[in-house]
Write a structure and sequence with these properties.
This protein is an alpha+beta fold. It folds into 2 domains: about 55 residues, Structural Genomics Hypothetical 15.5 Kd Protein In mrcA-pckA Intergenic Region, Chain A, CATH 3.10.290.10; about 200 residues, Pseudouridine synthase. Helices cover about 25% and strands about 30% of the residues. α1 crosses α2. It is elongated and about 70 Å long.
C-alpha cells in the first residue's frame, strides 16, 4: 500500500506557493480531493491514487522524479554553491524541494547528459564503480589522433600528472575526423575518475578543447535538448542509464551525425 502524506506538503512540493499561501488556499476551499472540497490542511492523502485538484486543475504527483538535463558549460554539477551557478539552478524549485540531486558529476566546462533524480537507489547504481556502467563522450582535441591512440586507450594506461596517478581501464576510441589542426572522436569509458578523459588524452599528447557526454549506460542524450534544456523521464527510461550493457558506438555516432546535419 502506498504511503500517505499531508495535503499541504504535496502542494508545497509541487511548487504551488509558500506553506502559508497553500494553507490559505485550502482554508478558502480552492482544493478538492476526490471531488470533495477540503479545508483541513493536515489531511493525509495518497498522491498516487487520490485525485487532487487546485482551483479546478488536476494535479499530477510522483514521489520520484527523473530529469534528463543537457548540461551546458560553465555550470557546476552540485546541489548548491555560494559563488557559481549549479545544475539545480537550471530547474524549477520543485526539484530541489523534492531532494533531487545529480547522479554523478560532469566537470564545470564539460557539457552533455546528466541525470537529476530523487531516486537514491538509481543514483547508487549509476555511480558505483563496480557496476561498470559505460559512458560515451564526444571529444574534440587540438591535435591529430591516430590508430595508435586507439590502441593505447584499448589496452589501458597508467597516468601520472599533477593530479596524481591512476591506471585507466581499457577504453574504446572511435575517430570521426583527424588532422593536424584538430580531431573529432568518440570515447567510451567504464569508470569516472577525476578529469579522466582529459587526462587520458593528455597522456597521448592531446589537449581536449571540447567534451560532451552523450550516453550513460543505455541512455542516449535527447538530441532535441539544447544546452541548458531538460525534460522529465519515466522511471523505465531513467533506469537505462544504469544498464551496464550500454549501447553501440554506431548509435552514438548516429546521434552526433544527426546533430551536425540536423
Amino acid at each position: 500500500m502506498a504511503d500517505s502524506m499531508r495535503l499541504d506538503r504535496m502542494l508545497s512540493n509541487l511548487g504551488l506557493g509558500s506553506r502559508n499561501a497553500i494553507r490559505e488556499m485550502i482554508r478558502h476551499g480552492a482544493v478538492t480531493v476526490n471531488g470533495n472540497t477540503v479545508r483541513d490542511i493536515a489531511m493525509h492523502i495518497v498522491p498516487e491514487t487520490d485525485e487532487v485538484r487546485c482551483q479546478g486543475r488536476l494535479l499530477s504527483y510522483s514521489r520520484q522524479r527523473y530529469v534528463m538535463l543537457n548540461k551546458p558549460g560553465n555550470v557546476l554539477t552540485a546541489a548548491r554553491d555560494n559563488k557559481s551557478r549549479t545544475v539545480m539552478d537550471l530547474l524549477p524549485p520543485l526539484y530541489r524541494s523534492m531532494h533531487c540531486t545529480p547522479a554523478g558529476r560532469l566537470d564545470k566546462d564539460t557539457e552533455g547528459l546528466l541525470i537529476i533524480t530523487s531516486d537514491g537507489d538509481l543514483v547508487h547504481r549509476i555511480i558505483t564503480p563496480g557496476k561498470d556502467v559505460s559512458k560515451i563522450y564526444e571529444v574534440r582535441t587540438d591535435g591529430c589522433l591516430s590508430e595508435e591512440d586507439g590502441t593505447a586507450f584499448a589496452s589501458g594506461m597508467t597516468i601520472r600528472d599533477s593530479d596524481g596517478e591512476f591506471t585507466a581501464r581499457g577504453a574504446e576510441l572511435r575517430i570521426i575526423a583527424a588532422s593536424p589542426a584538430g580531431s573529432h572522436a568518440l570515447i567510451r569509458i567504464t569508470e569516472g575518475k577525476y578529469h579522466q578523459v582529459k587526462r587520458m588524452f593528455a597522456a597521448r599528447g592531446q589537449n581536449v578543447v571540447f567534451l560532451k557526454r552523450i550516453c550513460e549506460g543505455a541512455l542516449l542524450l535527447d538530441a532535441s535538448l539544447a544546452p541548458g534544456a531538460w525534460r522529465e523521464m519515466s522511471r523505465e527510461e531513467a533506469a537505462k542509464a544504469a544498464n551496464p550493457a550500454g549501447i553501440g558506438m554506431d548509435d552514438a555516432a548516429a546521434l552526433i551525425e544527426g546533430e551536425h546535419h540536423g
